[in-house]
Amino acid sequence: MASGRDDDMDWLYRSPDRGEGQPSADDRSRSSGDASGRRRASFGEPEPAERTRIAQPPPEERTRVAPASPPKAQRQSRSQPQSRSAPPAKPQSRRPAAAPTRTRRRKRRRPVRNFFALVATLLTLWLIFTIGTPIYAWSSTTKADVMPSGERPPQQPGDLWLLVGSDSREGLTPDERKRLGTGDIEGQRTDTMLLLYVPPSGRPALVSIPRDSYVPIPGHGRNKINAAYAFGGAPLLIQTVEQNTGLRVDHYAEIGFGGFVNVIDALGGIEMCPQTAIKDKFSRLDIQAGCQNMDGVTALGYVRMRYADPTGDLGRMNRQREMVAGVIKKAATPATVVNPIRWWQINQGAAQSLTTDQDTGLMSMVGLAGPGLTIGRGEGVAVMVPVSNPNARTAAGSSMLWDKEKSQEMFSEIAAGNTANLDRFIRKPGE
Q1: Which domain holds residue 25?
Q2: In terms of Cα–Cα distance, which of 391, 382, 390, 430 is closest to 410?
Q3: Low complexity composition bias: which ranges (predicted)?
């Protein structure tokens, strides 16, 4: 069998040991070319264009070549079939060595993000509480139709507020009246009257109107100005103030005894500095000289006391302006707004005893903070209506008479929107 195979292949692979009689190289190429041509013809192969031929074994020899063995990995996988239930093997992780560090760094950042999220949430809640508290408190205030009808003075530049401290005992229990020393007098009177003027530019002015001012009251002749409130309430009081000053009242705000005390207590007291010791049985005031922190009850007696003051109502008006400035100054500090308990008590205490005109809104009240703080710092003007006689004998008893010339000058400057020269109307001690 081996001999026959050698013979069959001998025509292509000429053995070098055949010796003499071998054909030449040209003869071999022509023979192989003829044989190859005959094979291509027999198999239907196209004849190539170029002369170079690649020798191939006969077809029968090519069929005898054993197929290539599959790779070793394939033979092993075929011989060792894997279980269908086994999950495929996961590839080995090729992450760089820094990957665990990044994971740990993300974990360290989470507490920082949580902290800032907590701070943002608390800040949002605080803003909602700060803004919402006065809005809620404002809903409990009393709105009244107090602006008078009929002919009124022309509108002056800026805004003019009439601030009234009422001595009404309404809403106070007998124990509260006893504690506050208000007595049992029925009805409602104006214990304090202040004009707060906010000009378009320049310093704000706080003008005290003496409660015993002897002036004409529309429909009631001449009487003390606080009688106007007793005769016709806030509308007649506003009308009386407008006719005697020539100024138009833009806003009206009234607070009672209870609201005043609640605001002072909510602020933690107000520091006042009486120059002498004061003991007054009517206001139940008994304090020493010098600076001291006064609670609500003591502060109320301090601003109401007049019988133990040698200057009478003039001294009381000075203390009232001093107290108002102190309250505004302390209420406008950041500590008041930051402290939620104080902020809530101040708004609730003031709103529950506050009465305003119907056109005065919350933003108008908020707008008082700036001018009030200016006056509280002593940068505004704090004066009283000029008086010619503080103890005049009238049909209404001991009364105060306005200095017509000076008071008219002061009111004329306010009507013109000018507060630059109001300092000359400041009453010096002993005058």
Answers
A1: 2-45
A2: 382
A3: 71-87
